Design the sequence.
């Protein structure tokens, strides 16, 4: 059976790469709205700026910090021991999973459901493994963990958002001189965001470009970057033009201007976190296919990522962003929500931090979920005028529906592909 | 292409429209000053035109009210209770209705405020409108309240404004008592039916302040629950 892999190897890799690229493209086109929407919605950045930030930082996140979660997608959800006798099944399965997830994303977008790219790929992988090989091939514990993350991730993110927002209230808004305090404390928030982002990059991402740091070095370097970011923040705030006038309302307007600067940074963080977390959904299965084919049917759990895979995913995401993202953002622009930078920043920083923390545990989490949780967290702190609970419910339902939908599609494609090659 | 975006979770904020509504209501009640000035100078056709303005403004307030009610479906998660917001809106709207009633009654009966009580009546009306202005200012703090998460200094500030509103309302009560006395002193020289309506008008003008105070207490309740 393994000779199938030898004769059709390049072909299979090409197909997987094409589907992987398609999936990455879909992620870029789709999720840009979620990752950048709050920044655009609070008028901190324009649509054009959002697209540019997203392109740079999604790429950076995907390329520099995307390696870690990839391994979970590749070998965490299914037990590869069951594929040792028939490695080609793993290859077919991963290809069908990519195709299924990609198609499900397109369908969901057409229907306007905010589905999670992470869940669609996981559903698809579980689907082909459970039916094509046997239910015992699936690491149900891991799947259970993912289902658990539906509750845990938004909860963590909501909690962080709540805390951040409360601290902003205490330090800045509920004081005698909000503007002075904003100028004083916002650089610290900026430094915190910079620290989070650089830490995850250094600890999770730089291995594959041959840079290794000890833990102490990593923290030290992240702290240095955080300092630099903080100083840039102070400088940027100094250059702000404030509305004169001593009225409290004017004060708050000026405070929001200061927060808008911070928002630019958290938008970068969000794009970075999203790129690092979600690129795995596209390239995880591809990496699995490539490693099986290259090793002539041997399934090793320690196969390193081939050099061209990460860039392929990163480029795919950016292409999706560039080609489709603009249209998506304009749709958002039309029904923009009134959201002030101080709220948006709390939600974004919390969501990005949660993604960063969770990707350290290797659990594939959904960026959408962290963001929804964060928004609810700010709402709980009484920071948002109105949250539509009905929409929140629909989003949660679409997460639940995505798993079986992805699974069903991938089972179908799995048998098709198996029929073609065998 | 529809977007699968989570931005749908942000519903339209009711706070700005609510502030627009009180502004409209305040504008409507304020037109009573030129209206009474026109009647005092005996310019009834001018008064009728001004009354038309009051009508138009009241209608605008009504349509704002309707719009807010429609954008506040159930299933919204807000920092304040939905019922409190709607109740506040109802109270605000009553002020505009009252202004319309006053002008309508005066014009319908071509009722002239007697020369002897012209001046105190003007002062009385102005003080009642001050109460409405104060209510408007308190409501206009809502966006700052949202900014501070309905907590701390901003809440204290609004509480102070509401105390001030209560004081203004007490003032209008005193003014009302004295103006009734003055009317009582001259009522024998006037047409009895007119006098009955004059008492009615004095009462209604006082209601403007009462209603404004009620807006304040609604706001207070809303904040107390938070």
Sequence:
């Amino acid at each position: 059976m393994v000779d199938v892999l030898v004769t059709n190897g390049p072909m299979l890799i090409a197909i997987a790469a094409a589907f992987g690229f398609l999936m990455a493209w879909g992620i870029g086109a789709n999720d840009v709205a979620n990752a950048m929407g709050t920044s655009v919605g609070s008028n901190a950045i324009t649509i054009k700026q959002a697209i540019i930030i997203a392109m740079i930082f999604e790429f950076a996140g995907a390329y520099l910090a995307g390696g870690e979660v990839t391994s979970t997608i590749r070998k965490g959800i299914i037990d590869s021991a069951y594929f040792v006798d028939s490695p080609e099944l793993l290859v077919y399965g991963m290809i069908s999973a990519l195709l299924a997830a990609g198609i499900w994303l397109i369908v969901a977008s057409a229907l306007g459901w905010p589905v999670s790219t992470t869940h669609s790929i996981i559903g698809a992988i579980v689907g082909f493994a459970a039916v094509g090989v046997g239910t015992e091939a699936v690491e149900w514990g891991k799947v259970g963990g993912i289902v658990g993350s539906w509750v845990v991730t938004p909860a963590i993110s909501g909690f962080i958002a709540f805390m951040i927002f409360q601290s902003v209230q205490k330090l800045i808004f509920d004081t005698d001189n909000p503007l002075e305090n904003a100028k004083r404390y916002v650089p610290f928030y900026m430094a915190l965001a910079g620290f989070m982002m650089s830490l995850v990059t250094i600890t999770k991402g730089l291995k594959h470009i041959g840079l290794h740091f000890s833990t102490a070095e990593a923290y030290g370097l992240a702290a240095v970057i955080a300092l630099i970011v903080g100083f840039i923040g102070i400088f940027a705030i100094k250059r702000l033009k404030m509305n004169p006038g001593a009225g409290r309302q004017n004060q708050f307007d000026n405070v929001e201007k200061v927060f808008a600067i911070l928002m630019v940074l958290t938008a970068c963080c969000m794009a970075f976190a999203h790129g690092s977390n979600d690129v795995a959904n596209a390239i995880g299965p591809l990496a699995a296919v490539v490693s099986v084919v290259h090793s002539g049917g041997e399934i090793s759990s320690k196969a390193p990522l081939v050099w061209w895979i990460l860039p392929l995913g990163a480029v795919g995401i950016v292409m999706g962003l560039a080609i489709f993202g603009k249209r998506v953002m304009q749709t958002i622009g039309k029904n923009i929500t009134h959201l002030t930078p101080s709220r948006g920043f709390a939600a974004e920083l919390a969501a990005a931090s949660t993604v960063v923390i969770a990707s350290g545990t290797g659990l594939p989490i959904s960026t959408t979920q962290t963001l929804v949780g964060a928004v609810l967290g700010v709402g709980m702190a009484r920071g948002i005028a109105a949250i539509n609970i009905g929409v929140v419910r629909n989003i949660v339902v679409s997460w639940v529906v995505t798993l079986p939908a992805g699974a069903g599609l991938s089972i179908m494609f799995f048998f098709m592909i198996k029929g073609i090659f065998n | 292409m529809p977007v699968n975006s989570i931005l749908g979770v942000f519903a339209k904020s009711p706070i700005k429209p609510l502030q627009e509504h009180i502004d409209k209501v305040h504008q409507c009640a304020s037109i009573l000053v030129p209206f009474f000035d026109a009647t005092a100078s005996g310019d009834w056709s001018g008064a009728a035109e001004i009354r038309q303005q009051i009508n138009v403004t009241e209608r605008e307030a009504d349509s704002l009210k309707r719009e807010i009610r429609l954008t506040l479906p159930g299933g919204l998660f807000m920092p304040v209770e939905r019922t409190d917001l709607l109740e506040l809106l109802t109270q605000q709207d009553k002020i505009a209705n009252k202004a319309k009633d006053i002008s309508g009654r005066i014009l319908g009966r071509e009722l002239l405020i007697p020369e002897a009580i012209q001046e105190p009546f003007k002062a009385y009306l102005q003080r009642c409108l001050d109460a409405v202005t104060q209510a408007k200012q308190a409501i206009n703090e809502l966006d700052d309240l949202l900014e501070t998460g309905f907590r701390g200094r901003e809440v204290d500030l609004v509480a102070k404004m509401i105390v001030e509103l209560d004081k203004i309302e007490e003032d209008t009560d005193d003014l009302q008592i004295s103006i009734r006395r003055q009317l009582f002193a001259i009522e024998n020289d006037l047409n009895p039916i007119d006098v009955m309506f004059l008492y009615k008008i004095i009462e209604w003008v006082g209601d403007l302040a009462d209603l404004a105070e009620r807006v304040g207490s609604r706001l207070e309740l809303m904040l107390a629950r938070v």
Observations:
- Chain B touches chain A at residues 1-16, 75-79, 143-144, 146-154, 157, 226 (CB under 8 Å).
- Chain B has one domain: 3-225.
